[in-house]
Design brief:
homotetramer; 335 residues; alpha/beta; Dihydrodipicolinate Reductase, domain 2; six-stranded parallel sheet; globular
Chain lengths: 335, 335, 335, 335
């Protein structure tokens, strides 16, 4: 039974608490948060203790921590937790600074404890089924990947301002998805971004709509489309062309009802947002972490994966600014 | 907090145990089964006690029982449980004998305790969305309902022999579905059945494929198709034609991946069977029961609903035998 | 080059004129109609002559006639045309009277000329693809067929009154479709009909909504659903369950555009009516007739097929009236 | 009645001959081809005369010419035909040389005769319906367009070598589609191309797979994906995100049959190639040309549209080579 400390009792902390508590191989022992009341409430819900982060890290009876705090604390907490001998599952991104993330990996690497990054979408049953079909060779050699990833509505401007920008905050998931599906890190990145959804986002120095093209060394291509607003719901699709066919992972819908009237044939919208769409993925992610830590299975997502995604975000940010294709160097990946 | 005794620790008992234990308003207090070991195992899984049925009914601290035993014990247990002051949720069908079910209702009716029958499909989010749209008048006046209900594979012949026949065992769900969607009990029933899937089923006196037409007094029609075998999975669909349109509830699929190759465009199969398809429905069913018992909400499915479905099964069995349309009399519905 | 006389210059006559004139192996030589102006107009459109039916039948240079006149003239025209040595393609139904149709077959049979009945739907590419897949054994042994056939709107009451009733006028197509797909004539028919779309149709002695079940001697079942009104368009679907799978022929849509908004995900409606849906089928039907007549290919639809469909219409009409299953006797099929 | 001379009797010439001959407002008067026999055969099929191009242009009774010859002759023929007073419909592209195409426009412009370029896809009913819905504001302000355009199989290498490259030969259609849907010429183009389908294509100096991003001055973005090989058929889709929703134009399928077996749920493939998919579009294109020429309607596609598409092809070719974003200057559009 893995005894787990949860750092962070916000919205995503609640999601993880449920997964930890609901798993037969783990128990939620303690919760910390900068807001002590939030920690207390969440802890009470699951029969856990509300404690400080320091106390959790110092407790030898805690085997693992799940880091669900604000992004600017991730690197330091990964370092501290691994130093304290804990296995770590940390929410994405590792850090807003690629440099800091690389340093974190060097520090954490010394302690030899498993560190997994929370790219939950890999555990979505639809994306996983697409990846498995591609890996079985069902469409031959893969050639061209398209990732469509639209949020239903932009976050508050206050969040945008501290988010690190669309490429680091939102497209980071899609960078990871693309590298996971293609099984490689791209050699070059070209990006274009615009703030067409809301000019205030542009005024804040960010974009809300973007297209990024990834060029792999072997000639394969991936293209990622992001928008902060798709009013019909959370639009999360993959499309992979290969030498022998095409694989598509389509949206999950709210229900299967279809209505035909004089106005047309209408079905349900996609599930609204990540909580609706990815709840099974969070549970599967946690299960994979528990398996890796307790049964010695390989980590399905590594700290290096987190750095790779961050490096692409860095390159895309630069390409969108300059209009030039940016090479992904060995340095950017932590050497 | 509703304290619940579960009678029956078989496959469907496990499903209900999970729903009871997972609900914030109920707790699984005790489990009984003719197989004491099965009861003990299931009880242990949920921190409940394994007890005899008699002990559970005698325990004043138990508020409600869920009857998930074999069909031939349902009527007697409903009577005993209501006599002992328990609220009851009983698996379908009430009984294989319509006469016995009507008597059960008379006996149980005297005790004034809520008795709900487990027609879980009403709680399927897809069927519920179709029903809600129809009730909102989105397709005008309803005229013609089609129910497609195919199992992936026939049960063992040993089960078929004691099942009461396809109309009482399998189509009973669809009879309830039809009356629920149409909001009425039909006036007449015509049926045709055949044992084309497996002649051994015919030799055992049952059918494995059947079409039943329900004639409502106001001229509306419903048609139900059943097959014991659809090799591609559990096929559960509704289609409702109205004066202003058509509503369809389509199958849920295993995933949303679509593969296009020279062989065609292939998507996932329907979810395999009722455990995969209706797990959310069982949880919603239990929630509705808890609401009805604790908050005084109306029972969404009554013992009368169970009798109505059984009466249609009786009529269909007779019609399939004689080739004649059978009227549904007041007597058949318990007067 | 087959020289063709077209009898009847109404709506369906126009459809056939286009198919005849557009076919490389046939030429439209002459057109007749009770309305001489209608004949003249249609003839002029295709460079044909407007003549009387008698003149057309008497002209030895005319090889074949297409009978697209009102139903009550079909039998007599088939007899006269075959007596005059013409090959015949006659619109469905052969006659409203089964007895008369059987007599027509006896008379026409003596002349040894090909007589094909215009069950155009067999030539729809979707239904033909379903039939071909079933015949190739792609779903194993066929067990249960469903035919959904809804018109967009009822015809004028004046038409209903002389139509012979829904079973002879509208469902006749579906009877033929069912026998064609199943490759057999059913042994028994049970029917229920209602006039729920428009009570005036009921007052005129007809039904507008009906469900008919066909029982085949080998235990297979087909169910046909008809409605005179599906406001969303012409709903024409087949669904065939077999021992190894399910085949569905779905509707053709007006276009492939899908719109996702806050209101849902909306696609185009089915093509509106038979002219939109079945135009390619009419051309393919004519091609098959030309092949049969000029190249000695087997007739794809025979006069016997027309009688079989009419016999089922007769049986269904009777079953809907009495509530009893009606046997299809050898006599009803013309001995 | 528009009297038409067809220049070019190859595959696409046959398509156009059929459209011209089948239109009530036009007649195919003459056909020319460098291969006199090909011209004679095609002319005979439609009751036209086989003549030389010179004779056709010199014939005052010919009102219009359709240019379906090899690309290297387009500019000169447009100039000659307009000089001879003919209205012109010319196949895409105007020329492989942007400079030459601009000169052609200057020359042809002096004669004041209508010149339409054959971007047939604008006339596809699905794309036209998407465009109409967008123009009606059904998804609010348009923001992000995706064009998927995959051929079923690459052309012979001999063709590739003289084609002008994927961007000028194949993606030219998609450049026009993007500008038509978005209603604007983009300000910048970035492209990446690869020869992953067949290295021989790369050795010949071309690419077979490419992604191009178009940046519009108002911040909107379009992304085009091309592949020379999608083994499942001709994949032609549009997807347009707006402030109030998403519009998708999906593929047309060979038929509507769906088969469900243990292997999954399989539907038909997309129609195989442009002849199957776009035949109705060619007829609609011709109709629009006839309308414009005879009834004075505006030309739906102009020579300028042809130059714009060629300018984007030029920019994309350059961007794919350098990795830099290329600005679309006024000069490139002919000033």
């Amino acid at each position: 039974m893995l005894r787990v400390g949860l750092l962070g009792a916000g919205r995503i902390g609640h999601v993880h608490a449920k997964a930890i508590a609901g798993h037969a191989g783990s128990t939620l022992a303690a919760v910390s948060d900068v807001n002590a009341e939030a920690a207390a409430t969440l802890a009470a819900e699951h029969g856990a203790q509300a404690r400080t982060t320091e106390a959790i890290l110092a407790d030898a009876a805690i085997d693992a921590v799940l880091i669900a705090t604000s992004t600017d604390t991730h690197s330091a907490l990964i370092e501290a937790a691994t130093a304290a001998g804990k296995a770590v599952l940390c929410e994405k991104p590792v850090d807003l600074s690629l440099e800091r993330a690389i340093r974190c990996q060097q520090v954490a690497g010394r302690h030899g404890k498993p560190v997994m990054i929370g790219f939950n979408r890999r555990f979505d049953p639809n994306f996983a089924a697409l990846k498995a079909a591609a890996d079985r060779g069902e469409i031959g050699r893969t050639e061209l990947l398209s990732v469509t990833s639209f949020d239903p509505a932009p976050p508050p401007l206050s969040y945008i301002k501290v988010s690190g920008g669309l490429f680091r905050d939102m497209m980071i998931h899609d960078f990871d998805m693309a590298m996971w599906v293609m099984g490689a890190v791209p050699a070059k990145v070209s990006a274009v971004g615009t703030s067409i959804v809301d000019p205030a986002i542009g005024a804040a120095g960010d974009v809300d709509t973007a297209v990024v093209t990834l060029h792999f060394a072997d000639g394969r291509i991936a293209v990622i489309k992001n928008s902060r607003r798709a009013v019909y719901g959370y639009d999360q699709r993959l499309e992979l062309l290969g030498s022998e066919g095409l694989l598509q992972a389509q949206n999950m819908l709210e229900n299967t009802v279809v209505k035909s009237t004089v106005a047309g044939v209408t079905g349900a919208k996609p599930t609204y947002f990540f909580l609706e769409r990815y709840m099974p993925a969070y549970a599967a992610e946690w299960h994979a972490f528990v398996q890796a830590v307790t049964a010695g299975a390989a980590l399905p997502v590594t700290l290096q994966d987190g750095i790779n995604a961050l490096a692409l975000a860095e390159a895309a940010t630069q390409s969108a600014r300059t209009g030039e294709t940016v090479a992904v160097t060995r340095d950017m990946l932590g050497g």
